[in-house]
Amino acid sequence: AEQAGFDAEEVESDLAAAASGPLPVLAVVGRPNVGKSTLVNRILGRREAVVEDRPGVTRDRVTYEAEWAGRRFKVVDTGGWEQDVLGIQASVAAQAEFAVEAADAVVLVVDATVGPTDTDEAVVKLLRRAGKPVVLCANKVDGPSMEAEAAYLWSLGLGEPHPVSALHGRGTGDMLDAVLEALPEAPAQTFGDAPGGPRRIALIGRPNVGKSSLLNKVAGEDRVVVDAVAGTTRDPVDELIELGGVTWRFVDTAGIRRRVHLQDGADYYASLRTAAALEKAEAAVVLIDVTEPISVQDTRIITMAVDAGRALVIAYNKWDTLDEERRFYLEREIEQELVQVRWAPRVNISARTGRHMEKLVPAIETALAGWESRVSTGRLNGFLGELVASHPHPVRGGKQPRILFGTQAGTRPPRFVLFASGFLEAGYRRFIERRLREEFGFEGTPIHLSVRVRE
Ligand code: GDP
Ligand code: GDP
After folding, report:
1. In this predicted complex, what is the ipTM?
2. pLDDT tens, position by position, for the chain (455 residues)?
3. How many whole angstroms separate alpha carbon 445 and alpha carbon 69?
4. What are the binding positions for GTP 2 in this chain (predicted)?
5. Is 267 annotated as a binding residue?
C-alpha cells in the first residue's frame, strides 16, 4: 500500500474499520430542540465523508457509524421523526423505548439554558428502569458563564451533567470519553448467541402485512417463548422456533404481537420497533402485502434493513388473494420500486394457507450464506484487473481514475475497500457492485464498497 502512495497507517485503520464485527449502539435521546441532531453531527465529525455507495431506495437513515479515541460505535439519532404529529411526551417516550430495546448506552441531551423539565424527568424514569448506562449531556453551554446552569441538572439524579456546546464543539470530547466508558466493547444484543447457536431473524414489514399471522404459522404448536426456557433468558421478547429442522431465534416478536395502535404516532413507533429488531438480527424477512400497491413505507423498511447491513429476504404475503390483474401490476411495481434489491431472495407465500412456507428457510439460508461469504484477495484482484482493463473509468478533466487494487476487509455483510488513483464516480461504483454480484453471487446481502483515493 505504501509503495502505491497510500499512508500505511491510514490504510490499516480503513481495513480495520471495514473488518469490524457488529458495533455497540449509542442512542441519543431528549426533547425536541435540545440539540440532538447537532450533537450527532458533531460526534460523526468528518467520518461520514468517506465515500460509500450502498444500494437503497430512499434515504431515511437514523443509524450512523462513528469513531472516538480509536473506538467505533453506532450512533442512533432519534430526532426528527414526526414529533409534531406525536406530541412531545409520546415521541420522547418512543425514543426511550428504542434506547431500552436496542442501545447499549444512552446519551440524554438536556437544554441547560432551560433546565430540567417534566418531560426530561419522565424520560429519566424510563431510562433508569431499563438499567442501561446513561450519560447526561447538558447542552447549549456555549461558554464558561453558562456552566453554573448545567449544575442544576444534577437534580435529574443521573450523576454528573457534562457541559457541552454541540454547536461549537465545546466539551464534547470529555463527554465522549464518558460515553466510551459507558459503552461495552461489543453490543450485548446483536448476534449475542454462542457460535453455532440459533440464527437471529427479524420479521418486519408495515402494519397488517401479516407478520403475526406468519409467526403463528411457522411457530405452530411448538412455540417456545425464550423467556420461559431456563438459562436462555437473554431477551424476553425473542422466540425460538424450529423450522426446516433448524432452530431459529425470531427477535422482537413481542413487538409483533403487542400491536401499538396509536392513531397518528403508529408509524413512528413502528419505525422504532423495526430499527430495534434489525439491530438484534442477522437476517431480515421483509413482508410485503400483495393486496396493496407497494408503498413508500415498504421501501423505507427495506432500506432500513439494507442500511443496517442485514441479510435480506423479501416475502410477498397473501399470495392466496392474487388474481391475474393484480399479479401483473405487482410485478411492475416490484420492477419499479424494488429494483435496487433485486439481489434479495424472493418467496411468494400465504401465511393463511401455508403456501410455500417450506421455501422460507432455504431463502433465509441463501441470504445468510451471501452475507457471510468471502472472496480471496487474489481472486478479487484478478477480477478487478480484468474489469479495469475491459471497462475503464471514463476520463474526467483529462484524468482517468484507476482502481489499483482491492480487498474484502470484512463479512456480515461483505465489505470491500478499493484503492484508486482518483475519485470514482457513483455510477462506476454501482457498476463495480453489479459486476461483483454477477461474478461472486452475494445473493441476499447488501455489499459495502468504500473507496480510498490516493492523495
Ligand atoms: P433536536 O431537535 O434535539 O435534534 O435539536 P437540533 O439539533 O435540531 O437543535 C435545535 C436548535 O438548537 C438548533 O437551532 C441548533 O442550532 C440549536 N443548538 C443545538 N446545540 C446548540 C448549542 O450547543 N448551543 C446553542 N446556542 N444552540 C444549539
Ligand atoms: P401484522 O400487523 O403484520 O402482524 O398483520 P397480521 O398478521 O395481524 O395480519 C393482518 C391481516 O391480514 C389479518 O386480518 C390476517 O388474517 C390477514 N392475513 C395475514 N396473512 C394473510 C394471507 O396470507 N392471506 C390472506 N388472505 N390474509 C392474510
Report:
1. 0.69
2. 445 667 777 667 666 666 656 788 898 988 888 998 889 888 887 544 333 333 332 234 467 788 888 888 988 877 654 445 556 666 677 667 767 677 889 999 999 999 999 888 988 988 888 788 999 999 999 999 888 889 899 999 999 999 999 999 999 999 999 999 999 877 655 444 556 678 999 999 988 899 988 988 888 754 544 443 433 334 457 888 888 888 899 987 766 655 444 444 556 667 777 888 888 899 999 999 999 999 998 998 999 999 889 999 999 999 999 999 999 999 999 999 999 999 999 999 999 999 999 999 999 999 999 999 999 988 999 999 999 999 999 998 888 999 988 888 888 999 998 888 888 999 999 999 999 999 999 999 999 998 888 76
3. 31
4. 205-212, 252-256, 317-320
5. no
Closest ligand 1 atom to residue 165 Cα is: 23
Q: Which ligand is nearest to the CA of 261?
A: 2
Using CB atoms within 10 Å of the CB of residue 438, give its burial: 0 to 12 exposed, 13 to 18 middle, 19+ buried.
exposed
Q: 214 CA distance to ligand 2 centroid (A)?
A: 8
pTM, entire model: 0.72
Cis before 413? omega within 30: yes
Instruction: Identify which of 204, 386, 399 has the alpha carbon closest to the alpha carbon of residue 312.
Output: 204
Closest by alpha carbon to 307, among 187, 392, 413, 222?
Answer: 413
177 known ligand binder: no
**Ligand 2-lining residues (CB < 6 angstroms):** 205, 207-213, 256, 317-318, 320-321, 350-352
Atom of ligand 1 nearest to the CA of 40: 7
Which of 204, 206, 208 to probe ligand 2 with, by most ligand atoms within 8 A of CB?
Answer: 208
Mutate to test the pocket of ligand 2, among 203, 209, 213, 350 (most ligand atoms within 8 A of CB): 213
